[in-house]
Amino acid sequence: MIVEKFLTAFVSETPFSSGSGVAMLTGVLAVLIGVLGFRYLVKKYFGKDASRTPIFSEKNLSKPFAGVETDEKIRNAVLKQGFSIEKVPSDLDAIFIGSGIGSLSAACFLAKAGKKVLVLEQHDRAGGCCHTFTEKGFEFDTGIHYVGNEGPGQPDRILMDQLTGGRLHWDKLDDVYDVVKLGTGKDQKTFEIKSGSRQIWENALIEKFPDEADAIRKFTAAYKPIHTSFFYVGMVKFLPYWLMKVVISLGIIDWVTDYNKWNNICVRDFINGLTTNKDLRLVLQYLFGDYGTLPDKASIPILSLIHGHYWKNGAFYPRGGASEIPFHVIQEIQKADGAVLVRAKVQSILLDAAEKKAIGVRVEKGSKTYDIHAPKIISGAGFRNTFEKLLPKPVSMRLNRVQEVKTKVTPSASAFQAFFGFNGSQEELKLPKHNTWFYSTNEDPAITMKSYLNMTREEALSADPPFVFIAFPSTKDSTYVERHPNKICCTVVSVSNYDWFQEWSSSQATKRGDEYESVKNTMGQRLLDMVLDLFPQLQV
C-alpha cells in the first residue's frame, strides 16, 4: 500500500542515536513532530473522511506504457486550450496564476480533493519549464534535463504517478549521469559523476582524487543530517496550521533539528573548509546551474540534497519528452471539471473592499478584461511578479515581511539558452546519454561567473562564457527517434546578464530588430563552437 511505503520512508529517517539526555529528548521531540504530521496526513487522506479527499489512490500507480500521443489536435486540446470567458468553470474554489509545475501540481491535488480549479497561463502553451517546442523537425525541451528518485516504488515516483494518473513513464540515463569537463585543449580534465549508491559516487571521485578521500567522505556524510533536518521541517508543514504556528513560535524546530544551522552555511564556505584542491572544489559544486544561484549565495543543503537524490537510482528523463508531464497532469485536472487556459494574461489580483483578502483576478484578453472570482488565489508567477506587479503597490508596501524579503533576495542570474539541431542518427554520432558541464577554469566559480557577468555587452560578445551545460534530449528519450528520425537535438545553457538585453525588454519577441538578432547569433555561435569542440563528431 502507498501508506506503508511512506511509513517505511518515515521510519528509516528517524534520527535516534545513543548519547546524552539532550540528544534523547531531541530525538523524542523529532519523532513526535514526525508522528503528528504523518498521522494528520494519513487521517486526512486515508482515514474515515478520505472519500471526500481521494488525493492518493493505488489506481494511479504506474500503468503499462501506452505510447506517446502524437496527434497534435489531441495534445493541443490539453496543452494549448486558449482562454475565453465561456471556458471558465463555474463555482471555482481556486485560481492559479501561471502553469509551471508548481501551480499544476497544487492545482492537480486540489482537483483530486474535490475542488474546482482554474489555471491561467499567459504563454501560448501550458507547462512552464516543462514545455517543449518543435522547430524544423527538431523537438526541444526548455527546462527539464534530468530528475532523480523516479525509479519504481520510490516516493517521488509515487507522487508523480498520482499527478499523472500513472501514465507518465521515465527513461534512465547512463549510470554516469553527469560529466564535468575542466579546462581547455590538451590540459582538459574529465570527471565522471556516477550513480548506484553513495559509495559508488564517492569512489568515482576518490579514484580521481586519491589524496582527498577524507574530504569527499565528509562532503557526502553531510547529506544524512541535512536530509533529516529537512524531512522534519517538511513534516511540520503537514500539521494543522494552528499547531504549526505553535511549533515555529516556540522554536521547537531548532531543538529537534539542525535545519537553520545548515541553512546558514553557504556552498562555497562549506566546500572550501573541506579541501584546498581547486579541481575538487569545482567538481563538488559543479551543478549549481541546477538551482540557479552562485555558490557564495546558496546554502549547502540545496547542493547536498540535489547530489544525494541522484546517488542511489541515478537520473531519469520523461519518456516522450518534458511536455508529457503537463500533458498528463492537466488531464487529471480536466477530469475533475477544472481548466487550464493559455493566452490568459493576469493583469492584477483583485482584493476585497478592505484590501485584506484576495478574491479574484483580472484577465487581459485583447482589448477586453474579465474579472474572475474564487475564494483562493494562488500565484505561481514568482515573488517579485506577484508583489510588485499583480498586487497594488500600497498593499505590498504595507506587508512588512514582503519588504524584508525584497531587501534580502535579489533575482537569480539570467540564463542564455541555445538550441541546436543536427541531422544524423544516434548510431552514427554516438552521443552520450548524460549531461556535460564545461568549466574553462578551476577558479572559484562565484568569482569567474561574476567577472563574466560584469562585462559590457560588447566585451561579452568577444568572450567565451566560463561555464556551459550541454545535453542531448534526443538520446535520453527512448521514443524520440520514432517521432523524429535522424534528428538530433542539443540544448546548451550558460549564464547571461539581463542588462545586455534590457533595451529590448518591451518589444515583441519576433520584432526586436537586426542588432538584437546579431547579438543573439554571435553569442549562440560561441556556444556552438564550444559544443563542436567537445563533440567533434558533430562537425559537418
Automatic annotation (TrEMBL):
Keywords: FAD, Flavoprotein, Membrane, NAD, NADP, Signal, Transmembrane, Transmembrane helix. It comes from the Eukaryota. The chain crosses the membrane at residues 20-42. The keyword Signal applies. Coiled coil: none annotated. It holds the Pfam family NAD_binding_8. The keyword Transmembrane applies. Belongs to the carotenoid/retinoid oxidoreductase family. CrtISO subfamily. This is All-trans-retinol 13,14-reductase. It comes from Notodromas monacha. The lineage of its organism: Eukaryota, Metazoa, Ecdysozoa, Arthropoda, Crustacea.
